[in-house]
Specification:
It is built from ten helices and 14 strands. With 349 residues, it is an alpha+beta fold.
Length: 349
């Protein structure tokens, strides 16, 4: 059975898009299921689908572009820009700690607590979370979990703090920063932080299962995503992203090498982590991943093999069987090294 047939076999209950490119050729580009269940609108390869934490890499790149401009440094402390806000964040937490998930700050979503991501509820109304500063109400009140730099602990709140720091240091709104410094240089013409209450016609709707029925995820996520997740994208844009990134169009290749150098081993995920990117396999292939209520996403790029693969779906579990298949079939690993098979850490945005 060829790859396209295997994907189609797994996609029986899948609503999403799958794309694979190798050496300049699109090997697979397929859409399955419905983008809007209420109106029975089919998913297309051009559908804009949410990517949850997958866009933490875009946050990291926007921050690192400010580091290249010397607007920020990796040693800039959060406190120097937060001032009196979020007083429980320790004074020695730096931009580098936050990018590497080694800050030790208390997270507003505790991933050590077993729960269904579809059940997660934010403490403020969703419609009140549209700007970066509005997320202060969500981030406040969580004590330090461990000293900065001590260990890796995936932290959604840390990337919201990074968005705040980038915004305050540059004087430019976070969404505009990402657009100017990441999306435009990458040619990602169909990606952005869309509002859930005014989605364009091409945007797919996310769904959760409640009382035996499919319901939209509009009451589960902020009305507009921010530093820790919530962008919408297309699989074509993700191909453009990886191509531009490895051509030095977003940040320099030296900066990219720094970001994709392992900072932490994460054995439970069979991966390591750099600055904003997961790294898997024997050659530290960079990847981005995320899931949330009504969202699942995975995209990876092997620069040696000139291979890019992206899977996006409109449920929290939808992408993983196909993502695992793609890694098993496409990623070359050294003897004894298995492709990652984990469900990625959660993101509430």
């Amino acid at each position: 059975m060829d790859l396209a047939a295997e994907v189609a076999w797994l996609a029986t209950d899948f609503s999403g898009v799958v794309r694979v490119d190798r050496a300049g050729t699109t090997v697979l580009d397929a859409a399955f299921g419905l983008a809007d269940r209420r109106h029975a609108l089919p998913m297309t390869v051009d559908s804009q689908v949410a990517m949850a934490s997958g866009c933490k890499g875009m946050t990291a790149l926007a921050v690192m572009s400010l580091v290249e401009d010397r607007t920020l440094t990796l040693d800039t402390t959060a406190r120097s820009l937060l001032r009196d806000d979020l007083p429980l964040i320790a004074d020695d937490v730096t931009v580098e700690h936050l990018l590497a998930h080694r800050s030790g700050i208390g997270d507003y979503l505790d991933e050590n607590v077993e729960s269904d991501i579809d059940d997660y509820a934010l403490p403020v109304p969703m419609q009140e979370l549209a700007t970066t500063e509005q997320f202060l109400a969500v981030l406040d009140g969580f004590p330090t979990a461990f000293p900065a730099g001590e260990r890796f602990a995936y932290c959604n709140g840390g990337f919201l703090v990074l968005a705040l720091l980038a915004e305050r240091a540059s004087g430019t709104g976070f969404h505009e920063l990402v657009d100017d410094r990441v999306l435009r240089p990458a040619g990602m013409v169909d990606s952005g932080y869309l509002r859930s209450d005014e989605l364009p016609g091409r945007a797919a709707v996310g769904y959760v299962r409640r009382d035996g029925r499919w319901r939209t995820n509009v009451f589960h996520l902020p009305v507009r995503g921010n530093g820790d997740g919530g962008m919408y994208t297309t699989t074509a844009d993700m191909h453009r992203f990886w191509t531009a990134l490895h051509a030095g169009a977003i940040v320099s290749l030296d900066t990219l090498a720094l970001m994709t150098s392992p900072r932490s081993d994460v054995p439970q995920e069979r991966q390591s982590y750099g600055l904003g990117f997961w790294l898997h396999g024997s050659r530290a292939i960079p990847s981005l991943a995320g899931y949330d209520a009504g969202v699942s996403f995975r995209s990876f790029h092997d620069p040696v093999e000139q291979l890019t693969a992206t899977v996006v779906a409109t449920t929290a579990a939808g992408a993983w069987p196909i993502a695992r298949l793609l890694e098993e079939r496409l990623v070359t690993t050294s003897p004894g090294v298995s492709p990652s098979t984990e469900v990625p850490p959660t993101s509430p945005a």
